Amino acid sequence: MTPRELKAELRNERLARRDAISLEDRIVKSLAMAESGGERIVFKPGSIISGFLPIRSEADIRPLMDRLRRRGARLCVPVILDKQTIAFREFSAETPLVSTGFGTLGPGPEAAVLDPDIMLVPLSAFDRTGHRIGYGAGHYDRAIDRLWQKGLDPQLIGIAFDCQEVPSVPAEPHDVRLDAILTESGYSIFSPEIG
């Protein structure tokens, strides 16, 4: 089995586990994430943090984003511009949301486009070395690469439920490692890879 095929299998398996979490449990787990991450994520006031508005069975990190905002973060969320590109538009509780395609909502084109200092990254699966499996479209990988091309190096924090952890992600050379993971069990920072 190729790494790509194994990733697809792990993605489907872990998303099925996430989908099986009841709405009530998802709310409880999302609030636990807000409690833990709301204090443990370190940043300077005025830092730009990208979150996301939940789709399908993702964790609802709006309570977490609100806590980060109250600590001085400037928030943005991704919007899909086309099949290849996402941009991060400024977001607040008062921001009107519009359809941004592919079943997502986000701020409209009048919202400022920001470059995040910290990115809260949704994912399908992760391992304890910081490797992740996304949803397969590569939106975040390309967005991170664009930030790197600008000389920026955002901190990457994966957002997932415990059930999305796998023993090992078949990492490829182009894969981008997470700096930390936030689940309902808490916030964990990954050690840098050696070698």
Plain-language structure description:
Keywords: ATP-binding, Ligase, Magnesium, Metal-binding, Nucleotide-binding. This is 5-formyltetrahydrofolate cyclo-ligase. It comes from Rhizobium tubonense. Belongs to the 5-formyltetrahydrofolate cyclo-ligase family. Its cofactor is Mg(2+). The protein is α/β, with parallel strands linked by helices and 195 residues long. It has a single domain, classed as NagB/RpiA/CoA transferase-like (Rossmann fold). Helices cover 28% and strands 22% of the residues. It is built from four helices and eleven strands. The chain has helices spanning 3-19, 23-40, 62-70, 139-149; strands spanning 48-50, 74-80, 86-90, 97-99, 105-107, 118-122, 125-126, 132-133, 155-159, 180-183, 186-189. The strands form three sheets. It has a seven-stranded mixed sheet. Helix 2 (23-40) packs parallel to helix 3 (62-70). The chain is globular, with a radius of gyration of 16 Å. The mean pLDDT is 93.
Which value, in Å, is the CA radius of gyration?
Answer: 16 Å
Number of strands: 11
Outline the low-pLDDT stretches. Answer: none
Broad CATH class: Alpha Beta
Helix content: 25-40%
Largest sheet, spatial ordering of strands: 3-2-1-6-9-10-11
Helix-strand sequence: HHEHEEEEEEEHEEE
**Within the CATH hierarchy, at the fold level, what is the topology?**
Rossmann fold
Distance between the amino and carboxyl termini: 26 Å
Q: What is the percentage of strand-forming residues?
A: 15-25%
CATH architecture: 3-Layer(aba) Sandwich
Mean pLDDT: 93
User: What's the name of the CATH homologous superfamily?
Assistant: NagB/RpiA/CoA transferase-like
Major sheet attributes? 7 strands, mixed
Structural class, please? alpha/beta
Work out the oligomeric state of the chains in this entry: single chain
Tell me, briefly, the overall form.
globular
Number of domains: 1
Binding site for substrate: 53, 58
Keywords: ATP-binding, Ligase, Magnesium, Metal-binding, Nucleotide-binding
Protein name: 5-formyltetrahydrofolate cyclo-ligase
EC number: 6.3.3.2
